[in-house]
Specification:
- By secondary structure, the chain is mainly beta.
- The protein is built from one helix and 21 strands.
- It has a 21-stranded parallel sheet that branches.
- The termini are far apart.
Length: 213
């Protein structure tokens, strides 16, 4: 009897906590502006301007501008609109629109639009269409279609530049103490790489002219 009573008591104490945790992870859809802070969410979908601060989210789907601070997303993030923020941790991040972020980390990253990153880290695939700049950041292989890109005091395993349409001269600037561990390759064969004197390129430069300052 004592065991049964103890089990019932434990169940009575645990059940509300489990129910509360489950409630936090329910999918949320918001039609219109959303300002959320200090909450945990399951999948979050917003159609409208969105501000998120100090949040943990299972997945993110935003149609409209996004402003974030101290945001963690465990699953996929898809944003159609301009993004600005700092202290973001993402598993898989896709943005169509300008992105300006600081202290941004992601396992995989795809983007269409101007990208500006600072003090950031992409641990997996990087695929960008549009202008790109990064400072004090680290990347694996960067795949990019662009007219111009710039890395300052950053690292990358390799860089592959696809042809742009219509074809223009594509320029890559490497500044400060940037280190490229592998090859830099331009598909067009008409690229220009401008590198500061302290830049280290451990691999080959293919399809581009290398100009040292």
């Amino acid at each position: 009897m004592k065991k049964i009573a103890l089990f019932s008591l434990c169940s009575a104490l645990i059940a509300p906590a489990l129910m509360a945790e489950t409630a936090k992870l329910e999918p949320t859809t918001i039609m219109g502006p959303a300002h959320l802070s200090g909450e945990d969410k399951g999948s979050l979908k917003v159609m409208g301007p969105t501000k998120l601060k100090k949040m943990n989210v299972e997945s993110l789907d935003i149609m409209g501008p996004l402003d974030f601070e101290d945001l963690k997303v465990k699953g996929n993030s898809k944003i159609m609109g301009p993004v600005e923020g700092k202290d973001g941790q993402f598993a898989s991040f896709h943005v169509t629109g300008p992105l300006k972020a600081e202290k941004f980390t992601s396992d995989n990253f795809t983007a269409i639009g101007p990208i500006d990153l600072e003090k950031s880290q992409i641990k997996g695939d990087v695929d960008i269409i549009g202008p790109f700049s990064a400072e004090d950041s680290s990347f694996q292989k960067i795949m990019i279609t662009m007219d111009k890109a710039e890395l300052k005091d950053s690292t990358s395993k390799a860089i592959y530049v696809r042809k742009n349409t219509p074809e223009k001269v594509q320029k890559l600037k490497l500044k400060g103490k940037t280190v490229i561990d592998g090859t830099i390759e331009f598909e067009s064969g008409k690229g220009i790489v401008k590198a500061d004197k302290d830049v280290v390129i451990k691999g080959e430069v293919k399809g581009a002219e290398l100009k040292r300052k």
